[in-house]
Design brief:
288 residues, Rossmann fold, Threonyl-tRNA Synthetase, Chain A, domain 2, 2 domains, binds magnesium ion
Length: 288
């Protein structure tokens, strides 16, 4: 019997990390990521792509990537848009359209449709809803703690409308979710806002990016980190799912997502420990 490993088996695994930003890589309140620096350095050293998967807009994520000094594909607005930098991928993936310095897959319905549907649902239920489309940068800043410039970038939305429910105070959000489902849309709960978006979610976008990577990297090992229900579909798609501890409690999540690791620490501290631990073990050959 020939036990000689094939060239594919001999090549080291290719790790890809998908990460939520707010409350995960970034501190929920301060947006700092200082505590994650050791793990970020490890990613840079080993050429591990770090793919932001966020409710943030393209404009916000691009600025964040510049600050972090990374250039990788990224997923905006809860899976609505998938972007690939042209400087890294001159050809562009199949089905992507050119948009300035990026290639883009549009997975979500347009922003105008989302705003219209949100209004329809709130009228139907008699609820008072306030979405980003109605908020000034000052108001967005007051809810998020972002500076005005970043709040302006946060308002440049394409595929997802964040909103707050002003009234009623006592509410059953499932009623709202069902009204959205009937119209073919989804409501998810993020760290600060509810979001309305199309049927595509973070999980669908991550799945597509994994398939795209696997064509050139068959020994791909995927990891994802997130802290809130908007991240669960993404955690379901990867080999190593990590829930970053938060104030939220999610009973039964370990049954829904086999192999889920839950960090002891919150935000970037938890992120740092989980990435160092899992990547370190993969790199040293400890897993898989
Ligand atoms: Mg989050």
């Amino acid at each position: 019997m020939n036990n000689t490993p094939t060239s594919e088996e001999k090549s080291p695994p290719f790790i890809v990390i998908f990460t939520d930003l707010d409350g995960t890589l970034l501190d929920h309140d301060t947006y700092e990521w200082e505590a994650a620096k050791p793990a970020l350095e490890l990613c840079k050293h080993y050429g591990i792509p770090l793919i932001p998967v966020s409710s943030k807009t393209r404009a916000e994520i691009e600025v964040f990537q510049q600050k972090l000094g990374i250039m990788t594909p990224f997923i905006s607005e809860n899976g609505g848009g998938v972007y690939f930098p042209k400087s890294c991928y001159p050809e562009g993936p199949a089905g992507a359209v050119s948009e300035e310095n990026l290639w883009k897959w549009s997975l979500g319905p347009s922003y105008g449709v989302l705003v219209k549907v949100l209004k329809e649902i709130s009228d139907e239920l008699g609820w008072v809803i306030r979405g980003f489309s109605e908020m000034t940068p000052e108001e967005i800043s007051s809810y998020t703690g972002l500076d005005l410039e970043t709040s302006h970038l946060a308002a440049l939305r394409e595929y997802d409308e964040p909103f707050i429910i002003v009234e009623p105070e006592e509410k059953d959000v499932i009623v709202f979710e069902k009204a959205a489902e009937r119209r073919g849309f989804h409501i998810t709960e993020g760290g600060r806002f509810y979001h309305i978006h199309g049927k595509k979610d973070k999980g669908e976008a991550v799945k597509r990016v994994i398939l795209w990577y696997k064509r050139s990297q068959p020994r791909l090992i995927s990891m994802a980190l997130g802290d809130s229900p908007t991240d669960f579909s993404m955690l379901e798609q990867v080999d190593y799912p990590v829930l970053i501890r938060s104030t939220g409690h999610f009973p039964g999540l370990k049954d829904r997502i086999p192999g889920l690791k839950i960090t002891d620490e919150m935000g970037p501290d938890g992120w740092n420990s989980a990435v160092l631990d899992i990547s370190g073990q993969i790199i040293s050959g400890g897993i898989p």
